[in-house]
């Protein structure tokens, strides 16, 4: 019984592999055909004048992100944000970003119970900035033999404002990020940035480095 | 029986893999695709939108090419064989449209965005010793005339200033790639003195300004912009205050 069944399966397997091979030869044929397209293909294309402006453009990217930001002296806190990008060329893109976090207590406040340097509202940490990005290392990442994703490691730097402790501070940001396109219009991003600004919340001027690490998703349109 | 299962297992994956590309197509978006015919001996199709992505396919002369959309200077195309990939936008020059002519390539922007177009700008500058950051949205009514709304923030050692203004710009030589303009505008400033001990009141003042600027068209739809402004603040005191501001930034045209 079993041998009979096995024979049947083998015959089936042979037939299917046969069709697979047949498809293989089809592929080869198509290559040959494409070499002399005028013989098979009749490029009957619509009789109309085409201007570059009529082609859909997809230069914008919009997304959300979440992560952690280390607000100097005020602890490491969750941060969420929005970003909007314009892709100028394969190398350069521009980004506007808005992020929000909330500063924690300083160690001084924790050690001296009852001391409050800032009100709850003043602890709100908001930054907005405009940056220029450069796709330094674009490439393809392979998941399987037949599945590749376009990706890029980029440098990003810019300027903006940070609203914190009831004041606004001019802020310089610089960082590095990674973008993986899971299909033609969806990107997954990981960004690491340093937001540098000078404040005098603790009495004297101090240049602070606020390191941020985020992951996000964005869509091209 | 176990052998049968093993055999079945061996022969299913290739079938599933063969089915994979079809399921991928289901996720493709709909585009207003345009079709052209290749007129050069061949056009190379890359796997990604960048000069370094490998060429995996070649479309020969007279074969049709469907253009789906354009991103950052690259065209996403589909061949008649169903292969899709990327070609640089300059490859359009190697094709013909239905009328037998090469598709019309757009100019950098100083010709294409003459009128009836919007621009958005981001500018960083210096206003009376304070660092300023501004965003603007403008509309070009005619070849020469542009109206613009701008919001700036200047954060200095003594105060935080918020400025909101409306201005009119006159492009002196709209056909030039490096295009100078003059601007006139008026607005309202909110001045928040920065003090840790005493908390002085915020002030609001009206102002007017005149300025000169320069637009440099760098790439299609992208402009580098520099501007100098001279402000007059109509203060409540007897004297008006004069301020100067330098700005440098970029605009995106759309």
From TrEMBL, chain A:
Residues 1-22 form the signal peptide. Keywords: Signal. This is Outer membrane beta-barrel domain-containing protein. Transmembrane segments: none annotated. It comes from the Bacteria. It comes from Alcanivorax profundi.
From TrEMBL, chain B:
Residues 43-89 form the SH3b domain. Residues 127-254 form the Outer membrane protein beta-barrel domain. The keyword Signal applies. This is SH3b domain-containing protein. Gene3D superfamilies: 2.40.160.20, SH3 Domains. Keywords: Signal. Residues 1-18 form the signal peptide. The keyword Signal applies.
């Amino acid at each position: 019984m079993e041998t009979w069944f096995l024979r049947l399966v083998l015959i089936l397997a042979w037939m299917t592999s046969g069709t697979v091979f047949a498809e293989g030869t089809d592929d080869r044929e198509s290559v040959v055909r494409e070499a002399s397209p005028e013989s098979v293909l009749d490029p009957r294309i619509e009789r109309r004048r085409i201007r570059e402006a009529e082609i859909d453009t997809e230069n914008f990217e919009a997304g959300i992100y979440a992560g952690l930001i280390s607000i100097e002296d005020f602890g490491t806190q969750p941060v969420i944000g929005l970003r909007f990008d314009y892709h100028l060329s394969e190398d350069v893109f521009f980004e506007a970003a808005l992020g929000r976090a909330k500063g924690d207590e300083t160690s001084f406040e924790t050690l001296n119970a009852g001391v409050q340097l800032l009100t709850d509202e003043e602890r709100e940490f908001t930054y907005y900035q405009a940056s220029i990005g450069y796709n330094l290392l674009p490439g393809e990442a392979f998941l399987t033999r037949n599945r590749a994703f376009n990706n890029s490691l980029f440098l990003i730097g810019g300027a903006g404002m940070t609203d914190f402790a009831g004041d606004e501070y001019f802020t310089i940001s610089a960082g590095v990020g990674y973008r993986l396109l899971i299909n033609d219009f969806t990107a997954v991003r990981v960004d690491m940035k340093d937001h540098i600004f000078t404040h005098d919340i603790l009495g004297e001027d101090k240049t602070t480095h606020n390191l941020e690490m985020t992951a996000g998703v964005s869509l091209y349109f | 029986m176990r052998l049968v299962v093993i055999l079945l297992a061996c022969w299913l994956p290739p079938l599933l893999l063969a089915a994979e590309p079809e399921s991928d197509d289901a996720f493709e978006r709909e585009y207003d695709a345009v079709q052209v015919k290749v007129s050069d001996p061949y056009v190379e199709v890359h796997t990604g939108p960048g000069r370094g992505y490998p060429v995996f396919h070649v479309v020969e002369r007279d074969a049709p090419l469907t253009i789906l959309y354009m991103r950052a200077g690259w065209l996403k195309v589909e061949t008649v064989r169903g292969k899709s990939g990327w070609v640089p936008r300059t490859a359009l020059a190697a094709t013909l449209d239905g009328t037998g002519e090469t598709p019309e390539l757009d100019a950098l922007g100083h010709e294409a965005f003459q009128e009836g177009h919007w621009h958005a700008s981001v500018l960083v500058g210096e206003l009376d010793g304070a660092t300023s950051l501004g965003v603007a949205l403008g509309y070009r009514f005619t070849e020469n005339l542009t109206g613009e709304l701008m919001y700036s923030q200047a954060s200095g050692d003594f105060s935080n200033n918020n400025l909101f203004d409306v201005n009119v710009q006159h492009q002196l030589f709209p056909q030039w790639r490096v295009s100078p303009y003059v601007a006139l505008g008026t607005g309202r400033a909110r001045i928040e003195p920065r003090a840790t001990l005493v908390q002085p009141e915020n002030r609001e003042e009206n102002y007017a300004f005149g300025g000169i600027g320069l637009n440099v068209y760098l790439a299609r739809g992208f402009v580098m912009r520099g501007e100098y402004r001279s402000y007059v603040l109509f203060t409540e005191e007897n004297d008006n205050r004069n301020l100067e501001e330098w700005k440098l930034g970029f605009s995106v045209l759309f």
